[in-house]
Amino acid sequence: MFAIDNYDFKGKRAIIRVDFNVPLNEKGEVTDDTRIRAAIPTIKKVLEKGGSVILMSHLGRPKKNPDPKFSLEQIVPAIEKRLGVKVMFAGDCMGEKAAEMAKNLKPGEVMLLENLRFYAEEEGKPRGLAEDATDEEKKAAKKALKEGPQKEFVKKLASYADCYINDAFGTAHRAHASTALIADYFPNDKMFGYVMENELKAIDGIMLNPERPFCAILGGSKVSTKITIIENLLEKVDVLVLGGGMTYTFAAAEGGKVGNSICEPDQFQTALDILAKAKEKGVKVVMSPDALIADAFSADANTNVAPANNIPDGWEGVDIADEGKKVFREEILKCKTILWNGPVGVFEIDKFATGSRAVAEAIAEATSKGAYSLIGGGDSVACINKFGLADKVSYVSTGGGALLEYMEGKELPGVAAIRK
């Protein structure tokens, strides 16, 4: 496996899997170019070393080919603005135009393929099946797609280039054509880009060798979606700070009243088991003693404060309140390594975002005093950007699902494909 820094790109075409799944407004303009900015150093490295670049990415979840709403052509201006180089748009992935453009690519030039997910072959999911198709029929269609068209799709993509770079950490947990299968066509010419390299280094650093005390702050609405990650973190952290909707399941499991708050009664035993395991492992679990409560899930709802385990009927917990902010800050400031995944309130609504802001500010303060902080998962990243604190923490991860799966200890197909 090559590192991007010591590979000779001179005169070579590099096909780079980037994660340009960026948010667009109604006019098709990019509203947050974080992921584009993250990929620029990798693209520039290839160009500086005398190579040319073929970019490929997905955007959204299109169900047909083509679908103008999900065309990557819309993001060309945003890439050009950050890269400072003209980006040619192929208009497809498989047609003659893409092949011709790739063949004639000169050193220093950049082209962009159309949305990979316009093709069923990318994800290996058959399309156009009858709604009443049986499981057997679905299975057979999937097998036929993988054994025929998908192989041709991967082969064609690989034929455009001399080397392959995976720089899309956000999709590394998917065994898709462009993230895992294509690597087989470049046994001696495949590598991670800087985004992937930095992500793996940052996450491995805190998961394998953290400076202690190590604190993980986990938010999110449901216990059920965080069980595996909580269990894995209990083996590694000294302090586990829990926030968000899932804490009401813990409160109710211990006999508390949570009103109309989000709650999973089928996870009560799981919540109690987690608390018992934490005690056994000597991990301190911290939850907010109080909650900001609202009588409706909207920006103009009436609000009040109540103990987190005694919320009146007709009210629901939407954020941590002042006591929680104080307790969370104290714990965060004691730690040398901090991982934050998931807001601790409904941060999309400004008046329910003060708890998440307090967490972000405490992490920034701890970082300024020498702690190492990693922010990961779509909503936490959106939080840190919303509060303008991204440059006040050590590392902001671009991966959502990929980060969670990696932290759960799972092998990611996009990582394994390069390392093998």
TrEMBL record:
It catalyses: (2R)-3-phosphoglycerate + ATP = (2R)-3-phospho-glyceroyl phosphate + ADP. (2R)-3-phosphoglycerate binds at residues 35, 117, 174. Its EC number is 2.7.2.3. InterPro entries: Phosphoglycerate_kinase (IPR001576), Phosphoglycerate_kinase_N (IPR015824), Phosphoglycerate_kinase_sf (IPR036043). Its main location: cytoplasm. One of its GO terms (biological process) is glycolytic process. ATP binds at residues 226, 317, 348, 377-380. It is an enzyme of class 2 (transferase). CDD domains: Phosphoglycerate_kinase. Pfam families: PGK. Keywords: ATP-binding, Cytoplasm, Glycolysis, Kinase, Nucleotide-binding, Transferase. Belongs to the phosphoglycerate kinase family. Monomer. This is Phosphoglycerate kinase. It comes from Alistipes finegoldii. The lineage of its organism: Bacteria, Pseudomonadati, Bacteroidota, Bacteroidia, Bacteroidales.
